[in-house]
Amino acid sequence: MTRTPEARLWQSVLTAGLHDAAKGKDAGWIGSSDFQLVCVFTGLDPEAVAERFDADRFRRLIKAA
Description:
The protein is mostly helical and about 60 residues long. The chain has four helices and no strands. The chain has one domain. Helices cover about 70% and strands about 0% of the residues.
């Protein structure tokens, strides 16, 4: 699937938000209306993203990168 520039931009916004949530900066963002919009703009199901988000695993991925 080819991602549009807009979808890639929103994917970056989602990644940054998940990064902040994993660090405890804004854990309440996940599940908010803003989070839901970002997921939709990215082409992802907000409920699926929220269910699969694991802050510990995300932090480990950040350190590995």
